[in-house]
Amino acid sequence: MTAVEQTRHLATAIPGPKSSALIDRKAAAVSRGVGTTMPVYAARAGGGIVEDVDGNRLIDLGSGIAVTTIGNAAPRVAAAVAAQAREFTHTCFMVTPYEQYVDVCEHLNRLTPGTGEKRSALFNTGSEAVENAIKIARSYTRKQAVVAFDHAYHGRTNLTMALTAKSMPYKNGFGPFAPEIYRAPLSYPFRDAEFGKELATDGELAARRAISVIDKQVGADNLAAVIIEPIQGEGGFIVPAPGFLATLLAWCRDNNVVFIADEVQTGFARTGAMFACEHEGIEPDLIVTAKGIAGGLPLSAVTGRADIMDAPHVSGLGGTYGGNPVACAAALATIETIESDGLVARAAAIETLMKDRLHRLQADDDRIGDVRGRGAMIAVELVKPGGIEPDAELTKALCAAAHSQGVIVLSCGTYGNVLRFLPPLAISDELLNEGLDVLAAALKELA
User: What is d(CA 236, CA 259) in angstroms, rounded to the nearest whole number?
Assistant: First the structure.
């Protein structure tokens, strides 16, 4: 396959005629419950570009929601997938197992935070891995309750919808949800500042607030697990104040509560570390991974302390497709690419470039309330001038303007007012700067 040219190019209006025809076909064939962000249909992708069926080349600042971290159709991944598909595509690991599954688990046990003995289990999606992490925690502690946090997103299955905070579009009309799920306040520095500088900057203080709620509403004697995203994803790329995660973890350890880090969006070099927990120096009991794990193929995992991971009875964990051999081959190639090509350092370099540019924009525009994130996981929170009131309409208009100019950007946040950037680590500085140029111009036009 010829490499995708690494330039932005608009051959037609967005959407073009072929994409428009596919939009009509989708409306007639696909459930309307399946929404799309961009009004284009992809034909090819690679590096920092997605090319649509009309020949438009778009700058990719979304990576398929943090999945194609190493770049789309990355050469090692494409070769590994083709080679494995020629050998066999499925046997079911629970029937006739294969080495690739074991290889991936060995790498996960090596790479994830923590120096003790670890085990892993493989699944298909982030939601599925989260559900299994909860099963494992309940099996280990013989307790039932689970605490998640304000603004959290953990998936779209019944249990993970219960863990997810935002109603629309994830939960509205789909209940009742799984029981024994409780919610505690997160450290959200930008908005906690409304209640005082100390709460916004002191993660230990914010953690004590959360622990007080947990003690009163749940009680440690009933609590199997606390699950948290080290940096929240759909909730708005919220980075807790320093000390928040460590204080929570210490409390969990003191109370026989399993601490689960949901690194589905933050894992595999995305934040300028292999895993976001490393920024805070914490070692979770269980860590959930997916998205960037396999270069675009469906794979997820739960990794953690051996005594916890081995708590479920034999055959209590599994699934027909979990750890599919083709996806495992892709994961092994993805890990090789991250380590061989220095992509952790590349994510850190992207952070420096993006934050420098976005902070300069912020200095001249009080609609940019906050710039935050780590590595190639950066966000701006948009507000109404002169305050912190969320501006979802501006966010929506800015996304639409960027899309029309051939730049893929995503929004998120409980209030719908956060622009999130998840560029592939294979993107060039030139494309990244051009994408930010487009956004800056659109923001100026929307003044």
Answer: 22
| E strands in 208-307 | 223-228, 258-262, 286-289, 300-305
Tokens matching residue 129: 């891995």
Closest by alpha carbon to 281, among 231, 229, 242?
A: 242
Contacts of 14 (CB under 8 A, 6+ apart): 39, 40, 56, 403, 404, 405, 406
124 CB-side CA count, 13 A: 9
* Residue 387: burial class (beta carbons within 10 Å; 0-12, 13-18, 19+): exposed
Rounded-to-integer distance, Cα 69 and Cα 285, Å:
25
Rounded CA-CA distance 164/235 in Å is 9
**Mean pLDDT for the chain?**
97
Cα gap 279→285, rounded to integer Å: 16
pLDDT of residue 2: 67
Comparing C-alpha atoms, which of 169, 160, 152, 163 is closest to residue 34?
169
What's the pLDDT tens digit per position in 191-229?
998 888 899 999 999 999 999 999 999 999 999 999 999
* E strand or H helix at 110: helix 99-111
Residue 165 in tokens: 């905070």
What is the Cα–Cα distance from 178 to 41, expressed in whole angstroms? 36
- Give the residue-averaged pLDDT of 98-107: 98
pLDDT in the model for residue 196: 80
Helix (H, G, I), strand (E, B) or coil at 248: helix
119 pLDDT more than 90: yes
